[in-house]
Amino acid sequence: MSEEKVIILDFGSQYTQLIARRVREQKVYCEIHPYTLSPAAIEGNSTKGIILSGGPASVYDKGAPHIDAELFQLRIPVLGICYGMQLMTSLLGGKVVPSKEREYGRAELRIDEPSQIFDGLKKGQTYWVWMSHGDRVETLPPGFMTFASSSNSPIAAMGDPDRGLIGLQFHPEVAHTEIGGKILSNFLFRICQCRGSWDMRSFVEASVKRIKEEVGRERVICALSGGVDSSVVAALVHKAIGDRLTCIFVDNGLLRKAEAKEVSSILRDSFHWDLHVVDASREFLSRLKGIEDPEQKRKVIGELFITIFEQEARKLGTVGYLAQGTLYPDVIESVSFKGPSATIKSHHNVGGLPERMRLKLIEPLRELFKDEVRRIGEELGLPDRIIYRQPFPGPGLAVRVIGEVTEERLKVVREADAIIQDEIVKAGLYRDIWQSFAVLLPIKTVGVMGDERTYEHVIALRAISSLDGMTADWVRLPYELLGAIANRIINEVQGVNRVVYDISSKPPSTIEWE
Ligand code: XMP
Question: Which residues, 6 or more positions from 479, have their beta carbon under 8 angstroms from its beta carbon?
Answer without folding.
Answer: none
